[in-house]
Amino acid sequence: MLILSKFLKRSFYATQIVSSIKFLRMSVKFDTFIIALVLFIVLAYVFPQLYLWNNGKVISSLTTIGVSLIFFFYGLKLSTNNLTKGLRNWKMHVLIQCGTFVVFPFIVLIFYPLISDGGQEDFWLSFFFLAVVPSTVSSSVVMVSIARGNVPAAIFNASISGMIGVLVTPLLMHFFLDFGDVNVYTDVYWGLVKEIILPVILGILLQPYLGKFAAQYKRGLGKFDKLVILLIVYGSFAESFESGVFRTVSSSYLIGVFIGVIVLFFVVYGILYWLSKTVLGFNREDCITVLFCGSKKSLTHGSVFGKFLFVNSSAAGLYFLPLMVFHAFQILVITIIAQRYAQKQL
C-alpha cells in the first residue's frame, strides 16, 4: 500500500511536469533532445525500478555497449583530411583547449575556498565537473558552419578535445572527488580507454570499409548516441532519487544551478572573445571557431566520464545537473549567436 501511495504521488508530480513541458513545447521551439532529457528524469523519479532491477547491472551493461558503439561510429565518421586541414593556426588551437580545460576550471576553482559544508561542496563539485569535461563535437561544428567560421579547425579542436579529456578530466576530478575503492589510474583510465579510445581507433581503421555506411546512416547514428546518453542520465537520476539525495535539495539550490550556469557561460564567452579578438587579433572565421568550440561542453563525454567517476556515489544525479542545464543553455544561446553571425555575412 505504501509503495502504491508513493507511486501515485510521484505520478501526480510527473503529470504536472509533463503538462508544463507540453505547454512550453507549443510556446517555444525547444530542442527535442532537451525535452527527452527532462522526460527521462521524470521517468527516473516515477519508475526507478527499471534501473534497480538486477542491481542496475542490465542498464549498466547496455550503456557500456552503447558507449563503445558511439565512439566506434564516431571513428568511422572522423575525417583525417579535415583534421589535417585544421592544423594551421596553432595559437587558435591552444586558446580553444585552454578555454576548455584551463579557463573553465580556474573560474570555478576561485570559489573553492568559500565552501563551508557538505551541501556547498556537492554544489561546487557539480560545477567543477561541468568545467573539466571536453568540448562538444557535433553541435560545435554545426554552429561554426552556420556562422561561417573555420569548419576544419572546429572539427580538429572538437575531436582533439575529447581525447584530451580522457586524460585530463579524471586527473582534475581526482583532486576533489573521493573515489573510494576505485583507482583513478587503473579502473577509471582503463575503463575510458576501453570504451572510448579503442573503439575510436577501431572505427578509424575500418573507415575505408564502413565509412560510407556511417555517412549514409548519420542521422540514425545520431539518434542512437542520444538514446545511450538518456539511459545513462536515467540510471544516474534513478539511483539519486532512490537514495533520497534530492530530498535534501532546496529550491534555492536549483535556482543557484541555473544562475551559476548562465554566469559561467557568459564569463567564459567574454574572456574568449577578448583574447581572440583584442589580444590575438584573429580574423572573423577563427574568432567564431574559438568562441563556439571553447565555450561549449559535451554532455556525451560528461555522461560517459560520470559513469566511472561517480560509480560509488548516490549523488550522481546532482553532479550531472549543471552539465545538463549548461547543455540546454549553450544550444539556445549559440544557435541565436550563430544565426546573427550568418546574417551579417549576407
Defining traits:
346 residues; mainly alpha; 16 helices
Gyration radius (Cα, Å) is 20 Å
Give the biggest beta sheet: none
Portion of residues in beta strands equals under 5%
Give helix % range: over 70%
Would you kindly provide a brief summary of this structure?
The protein is mainly α and 346 residues long. It has 16 helices and no strands. It has helices spanning 2-27, 32-46, 49-52, 57-77, 80-85, 90-109, 118-132, 138-146, 151-174, 184-205, 207-216, 218-243, 251-279, 284-294, 299-309, 316-345.
Which helices and strands, and how do they pair?
Layout: H1 2-27, H2 32-46, H3 49-52, H4 57-77, H5 80-85, H6 90-109, H7 118-132, H8 138-146, H9 151-174, H10 184-205, H11 207-216, H12 218-243, H13 251-279, H14 284-294, H15 299-309, H16 316-345
Helix pairs in contact: 1-2, 2-12, 4-10, 4-11, 4-12, 6-7, 6-9, 6-13, 6-14, 7-16, 8-9, 8-14, 8-16, 9-10, 9-14, 10-15, 12-15, 12-16, 13-14, 13-16, 15-16
